[in-house]
TrEMBL record:
Lineage of source species: Archaea, Methanobacteriati, Methanobacteriota, Stenosarchaea group, Halobacteria
Signal peptide residue numbers: none
Keyword Acetylation listed: no
Subunit (UniProt): Homotetramer.
Descriptive protein name: Aldehyde dehydrogenase (NAD+)
Family according to the record: Belongs to the aldehyde dehydrogenase family.
Residue span(s) of domain Aldehyde dehydrogenase: 15-482
Entries under Gene3D superfamilies matching the protein: Aldehyde Dehydrogenase, Chain A, domain 1, Aldehyde Dehydrogenase, Chain A, domain 2
Organism: Halogeometricum rufum
Keyword hit for ATP-binding: no
GO molecular function: aldehyde dehydrogenase (NAD+) activity
The entry's keywords: NAD, Oxidoreductase
């Protein structure tokens, strides 16, 4: 992509340098090579984008859902037509292995398909009234301007989770892509331009946290949709929570657990645990960093999981034989390494330590990539260790043994501030049902890895992981307001609850 051009923001239907002098680079995390140079957005650029979004609101809302969806259908086709190319860009820019790069694009068009298809479905409800002469309805209106702030790890799918439904419902958007994946941001903005979306309806400002903050702080923003770290999400939620009329839907990380019971099929258990812990190099919000295993199957599970962790292929993410690509950036290698060191200081029993890969494991030409391999250890399931309670967001996995029944396993599983995803591996339906009903998470899986969302299912966490909005249907709640609309069909005023409608005078 590098061609000497400095890529711009897309504001009010125009490409613009914005007001700042600073630029930043996108880096391929597998090679360290520069992929492109981008303008760094300032709070003034966000201000211009919000002004454009605000101005575009009225005309956009005057269109029908179906007309608005037509613009999204163009983007749906472009995402499909450019699947291979864009999947490769995702892999080059965020380091996910190539099947994941392509799946990110597939998930994006699934979300667009859902949102645009939903335009022809009923909107709101017809509700019975206590008074036969009244018609009562629940109607929805767009909230107005939606500010979208997205993370790097699903650089195409998550922006469409935020934006597709917001736009079809009649909102205008200002989007800030993650600073690690601006190239994906550039391509998505070009798609909106190709679709001829009316100016100001979609706006993109490239940049860092200060640009995100300017979105959050502006009173023209009616809803903030944020996906990212707990640290930033909690700050946004507390800021916006203090502003009446504004809403923040924040989806954050997890310390996700998998329970392997005494009745587990160990083939499924090992396969699910390896997928959950090491796919995307552990950098999914739903990645598992805790495997809670019954003592009766512990030794066999441990032996098989350790063997898998020692042998998973780390390497060039564009190579189809690769299972784990690099971490996103050098700062993240430092963070994961620190947590591996912390675990050792917390006196856990280290089983696999591939924190630093051997030279022969790093493919030629990839020496400047951000590599780590799996780190696996066993720790006391009931001890309050930082390494078993804080999100590392890497291939850092604790094996925690339990000896009691499913109640004990779920207690250990729930012993975290987070509540995003988890799984149970068991052939006993009573254990499965107990887990389903008692695990404190938003995404629960049985006999499957705890990764792998589908856009038409709810997605989102509980506890410190989020407030459960950003899947297709739930985003509607966050980006629309409900109105109760009641119409009287008679000439008399009749009230509910038997309330008298007689106006009594002094002469009565
Ligand atoms: N629950 C989910 O749906 C989900 C999905 C993917 C990732 N995640 C989480 O995201 C995290 C990794 O992503 P990340 O490193 O990009 O997260 P991050 O919080 O560092 O950044 C996310 C976005 O927020 C912006 N930002 C940073 N500081 C800001 C501020 N003060 N105000 C407003 N915006 C700000 C960033 O520029 C970026 O666009 C992990 O914790 C992961 O679990 C959650």
């Amino acid at each position: 992509m590098t061609n000497g051009e400095v890529y711009q923001h897309y504001i009010g239907g125009e490409w613009t340098d914005g007001t700042g002098d600073e630029t930043f680079e996108s880096e391929n995390p597998a090679t360290g090579e520069t992929l492109g140079e981008f303008r760094r957005g300032t709070p003034e650029d966000v201000d211009a984008a919000l002004a454009a979004a605000d101005e575009a609101e009225e005309e956009w809302q005057a269109l029908s859902h179906i007309d608005r969806a037509e613009y999204l259908w163009d983007i749906y086709h472009e995402l499909k037509d450019r699947h291979e190319e864009l999947g490769e860009v995702v892999t080059k820019e965020c380091g996910k292995e190539i099947s994941e790069g392509k799946a990110d694009v597939t998930e994006a068009w699934h979300m667009v398909e859902w949102a645009a298809g939903d335009a022809r479905h009923p909107k709101g409800d017809v509700v019975p009234s206590e008074i036969p002469a009244k018609d009562a309805y629940m109607r929805r209106k767009p909230r107005g301007v939606v500010g979208c702030i997205t993370p790097w790890n699903f650089p195409v799918a998550i922006p469409f989770w935020h934006m597709a439904v917001s736009l079809v419902e009649g909102n205008t958007v200002v989007w800030k892509p993650a600073e690690q994946t601006p190239w994906c941001g550039q391509i998505i903005a070009e798609m909106f331009e190709d679709a001829d979306i009316p100016e100001g309806v979609f706006n993109m400002v490239q940049g860092f946290g200060d640009a995100g903050e300017a979105i959050v702080d502006d009173s023209r923003v009616d809803t903030v949709l944020f996906t990212g770290s707990a640290e930033v999400g909690h700050e946004i939620a507390s800021k916006v929570g203090g502003e009446p009329g504004k809403l923040a839907a924040c989806e954050m990380g997890g310390k996700n657990g998998i329970v392997v019971t005494e009745n587990a099929d160990l083939d499924i258990a090992v396969h699910s645990a390896v997928m959950s812990s090491f796919k995307t190099t552990g950098q999914r919000c739903v990645s598992s960093e805790r495997i809670i295993v019954h003592e009766s199957v512990y030794d066999e599970f441990k032996e098989r999981f350790v063997e898998a962790a020692e042998n998973v292929a780390v390497g060039n993410p564009l190579d189809e034989q690769t299972f784990m690509g690099p971490l996103i950036e050098e700062g993240h290698v430092e963070k994961v390494t620190k947590y591996n060191e912390l675990a050792k200081r917390e006196d856990v029993n280290v089983l696999v330590d591939r924190t630093e890969l051997n030279d022969d494991e790093i493919p030629d030409g990839h020496e400047d990539g951000h590599w780590v391999g799996p780190f696996v250890y066993e720790a006391d399931a009931h001890e309050n260790l930082r390494c078993t309670h804080e999100e590392v967001f890497g291939p850092h996995v604790a094996l925690l043994q339990y000896s009691g029944d499913i109640e004990e396993a779920v207690e250990i599983h729930n012993d975290t501030d987070y509540g995003l995803a988890g799984a149970i591996i068991s052939e006993d339906y009573r254990e499965i049902n107990y887990y389903r009903d008692n695990a404190e998470i938003g995404l629960a899986y049985g006999n499957l890895p705890c990764i792998g969302a589908e856009v038409h299912l709810p997605f989102g966490g509980v506890k410190k992981s989020g407030n459960g909005y950003p899947s297709a249907r739930e985003v509607i709640e966050a980006v629309t307001e409900r109105t109760a609309w009641t119409l009287n069909n008679s000439k008399d005023i009749q009230m509910a609850q038997g309330l008298s409608a007689d106006i009594k005078t002094r002469d009565d």
